[in-house]
Amino acid sequence: MTPPEPHGAPGLFADRLRVLVVAAHPDEPDEYAGGIAARLALAGHGVKFLSLTNGDAGHWSTPRKALARRRAVEAFAAARELGVQEYEILDEHDGELVPSVALRREVVARIRRWQADLVVTFHDECPGHLDNRAAGRLVREAVSVVGLANVVPRVPALETPPVCLLMPDHDALAHHRHDVVVDVSSTIEAKLRACLAHASQFLEFAPWQRGLLDQVPPASDPVGQREFVLEHWAPYLCTQPEVRAAVAAAGLDPVGEYAESFQLADYGRATTAAEVRALLG
């Protein structure tokens, strides 16, 4: 891993950003923030994905241990597609994530070790997957103490807390505020390849849940698989009408066909939507 650049450059951030995306399951960082991750990585910033569970509940037939191993392999392949430097997966059971003190310590340690300038995670109180809410709560609580030297003293405290952004899982969209909308059309192909690397989810488990398993194209048809994901994950990939409306209401230039939306968290380092927009492009 490349050593972090020193903090303290003029402006909101150092010249080289350190970005940490924290989700509950492998595949979610790619799905919700893969576009900006690829953009930032291409620009030379450091990007890490952290999954707080190993995803071992995400299949109808594969046993937990085998599934956790498979999902780790998929995650590392996805990281290569996006240019993400690290993809860390904690060994916690999928479907059982709780915001415990022990896990909070682990999140504190990882925010500090990565020397994160920017942390992206889920809402902690909205509808959606219970693990996603727990992940958001863990990040909220961890960020509140990242500067306290006596909390997790084995890892040096941060002098400045990170800026924090929230990404919605699909069921939380109605409660999400589109503060920062980033056009990711330039990196959508990398994001699609990353999603397809998580074949156990995008080509097996989720289609099985939705009754679409018989419609999944075979591995010999990668173009068909790409189109399948584009069609059935449009709310996660394509710019939705409510996002376009929010951009227009803010008086900003229209975004393209593919975009990612984030809300400023009410914790972490104080900033403005305009500052973050300027940073993320």
TrEMBL record:
<keyword id="KW-0862">Zinc</keyword>
<keyword id="KW-0378">Hydrolase</keyword>
<dbReference type="GO" id="GO:0016137">
    <property type="term" value="P:glycoside metabolic process"/>
</dbReference>
<dbReference type="Pfam" id="PF02585">
    <property type="entry name" value="PIG-L"/>
</dbReference>
<protein>
    <submittedName>
        <fullName>1D-myo-inositol 2-acetamido-2-deoxy-alpha-D-glucopyranoside deacetylase</fullName>
        <ecNumber>3.5.1.103</ecNumber>
    </submittedName>
</protein>
<dbReference type="InterPro" id="IPR003737">
    <property type="entry name" value="GlcNAc_PI_deacetylase-related"/>
</dbReference>
<dbReference type="GO" id="GO:0035595">
    <property type="term" value="F:N-acetylglucosaminylinositol deacetylase activity"/>
</dbReference>
<dbReference type="InterPro" id="IPR024078">
    <property type="entry name" value="LmbE-like_dom_sf"/>
</dbReference>
